[in-house]
Design goal:
Structural class: mainly alpha
Number of domains: 1
Order of helices and strands: HH
Number of helices: 2
Distance between the termini: 23 Å
């Protein structure tokens, strides 16, 4: 596995987690808007459609990345983002922060 592969996995991991947090903040804002403001039914439906569309995009993003060594889908490996090791081939996908002095 090359250094570029590791950097790509690291960027994907951070993006996935950041987007997950942003999605839940967006979801809460939409729910608050619907509950506390008198929005039309069409506006409410459009907001909820946007929430579901964003959820679908995030699911696709989570399941898009594959292990550079064996091609296993990393989104199916029991955690958000990229796991430390590939469950199929055991390749190290992210460095342990304890080893980096952090």
């Amino acid at each position: 596995m090359t250094e570029d592969d590791l950097k790509s996995l690291y960027r994907h991991h951070n993006a996935t987690i950041g987007l997950f947090v942003a999605f839940w903040l967006f979801f809460l804002v939409v729910i608050l808007l619907i509950e506390f403001f008198s929005l039309s039914k069409i506006t409410q439906d459009n907001l909820m459609g946007t929430v579901f569309g964003a959820a679908i995009v995030l699911c696709l993003l989570q399941f898009k990345k594959r292990c550079p060594d064996c091609g296993a889908n990393l989104g199916l490996q029991r955690r958000l983002g990229i796991p430390r090791k590939c469950a199929k081939c055991g390749a190290l996908l992210r460095k342990d922060p304890k080893m980096d002095g952090g």
